[in-house]
Structures are given as C-alpha cells and as structure tokens.
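Tutorial handout. Part one gives the primary structure; part two gives the three-dimensional structure as tokens.
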Amino acid sequence: MQKSNLEKQEAKLKQLNQKIKAEKNKIEQRLGRQIISQSNLDYANLSNDQIKLLAKKFSEFLKVKSVDH
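Part two.
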C-alpha cells in the first residue's frame, strides 16, 4: 500500500515540476517579447548570435544597476 502512495506522490511531484517549468517558460517568453518590443527590434533580423549578445549586454546592465543600489 505504501508503494502505491509513494507512486502517487511521485506523479504529483512530476506534474508540479512540469507546471513550474511551463510557468518559467511563459515568463521568459513574456520578458523576451517585452524587451524586443520596447527596443523596437525586428524579430526577422535577430540571429542567434545577436540574441546572445543582447542577452549578455542586458544581463551586464542589470548587474551594474543592482550594484548601484
């Protein structure tokens, strides 16, 4: 009987982890869209290398701003 209970808990945990992952993905997508929109960037002209460079610059900017506080 305990094995069945443990299996149910594991299934719930997997389901919860999937929900967390989905929510993180939603947040990342919304953040990315907002950054692109606010920066007036064109999706069609963004290569993977440009996206990585922009993300690095944005990250560095946030790090500098958090140190200033």
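Part three, for discussion. The chain has a mean pLDDT of 88. The CA atoms of residues 36 and 44 lie 11 Å apart.
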